[in-house]
Design brief:
Elements (H helix, E strand, L loop, with lengths): L1 E10 L6 E11 L4 E5 L6 H9 L6 E6 L2 E2 L5 H11 E4 L11 H12 L4 H14 L15 H12 L6 E5 L7 H16 L3 E5 L11 E6 L2 E7 L5
Parallel strand pairs: 3-8, 3-9, 6-7, 7-8
Antiparallel strand pairs: 1-2, 1-4, 4-5, 9-10
Helix pairs in contact: 3-4, 3-5, 4-5, 5-6
The structure holds adenosine-5'-triphosphate.
Keywords: ATP-binding, Nucleotide-binding, Transport
Organism: Variimorphobacter saccharofermentans
InterPro entries: AAA+_ATPase, ABC_transporter-like_ATP-bd, ABC_transporter-like_CS, ABC_transpr_LolD-like, MacB-like_ATP-bd, P-loop_NTPase
């Protein structure tokens, strides 16, 4: 589903030149739940940012469902991403002047892949799924960090994208809220979503199927997680 093929990224020039990703090749299959871990500054976010279009590689290819994402113009990238990738950030990135319901409706109103008359019911259903029934008309500032991250997850699911990318979604949460959020990701994966998550969590959470470790822009480990039941 997601294939990075010989992807490299360099920032700066001359003495300040920094190779952030060095010939990275990763192949993620549909249905995987992948954790990308590694020290701060190792290149994890840069990798995810290529899928969201925030960063572009200097060389190599990125395919998502056989689409050459590098080849998209900025406008094409925007509309492709809106309909095909759900994104969850560390600091939630909710719009403070919109209610919880309006925040979840926003991607639907932009991408227009969900029929207009189904959108409000869908947003309410997604909020119920993440445990926020009854909070629809609140503003983000009225919610705890964990609740705000739930809204962000509902928003990431708005257009029913098969691929969810999450950049340290528990990085700003206490351990209890982190556990709750990780359980939601596990459930999403069980419902068929493919998930790529950058995290600093120390212990691999139940449900994670693969752990890719990055160091200085290179993959130093790529482990399938097999659990006995
Ligand atoms: N726009 C930029 N310009 C210059 N350098 C950048 C830019 N974006 C990232 N970098 C550098 O690239 C390196 C990798 O950054 P990246 O955010 O991918 O690391 P990370 O592994 O996600 O780190 P963290 O765990 O701290 O979030 C860092 O040294 C960072 O300073």
């Amino acid at each position: 589903m997601v294939e990075f093929r010989n992807v490299s990224k360099v920032y700066g020039q001359g003495e300040g030149k920094r190779i952030v990703l060095d010939n990275v090749t990763i192949n993620v299959q549909t249905g995987e739940y992948v954790w990308i871990t590694g020290k701060s500054g190792s290149g994890k976010s840069t990798l995810l940012n290529m899928i969201s279009g925030i960063d572009k590689s200097d060389s190599g290819y990125l395919y998502v469902n056989d689409l050459n994402v590098n080849g998209l113009s900025e406008e094409e990238m925007c509309s492709w991403r809106g309909a095909n990738v759900g994104i969850v950030f560390q600091f939630f990135q909710l719009l403070p002047t919109l209610t919880v319901l309006e925040n979840v409706l926003l991607p639907m109103n932009i991408a227009k892949v969900i029929p207009r008359k189904e959108r409000a019911a869908r947003a309410k259903e997604l909020l119920k799924m993440v445990g926020l029934e009854g909070h629809e008309n609140k503003y983000p500032a009225m919610l705890s960090g964990g609740e705000q991250q739930r809204v962000a997850i509902a928003r990431a699911l708005a257009n029913d994208a098969d691929l969810i990318i999450a950049d340290e979604p528990t990085g700003n949460l206490d351990s209890r809220s982190s556990e709750d959020i990780l359980k939601i990701f596990q459930e999403l994966n069980q419902r068929g979503k493919t998930i790529l998550m950058v995290t600093h969590e120390r212990e691999i959470h139940e449900g994670v199927t693969r752990n890719i470790v990055i160091q200085d822009g290179r993959i130093i480990a790529d482990k399938l997680i097999v659990r006995c039941v």
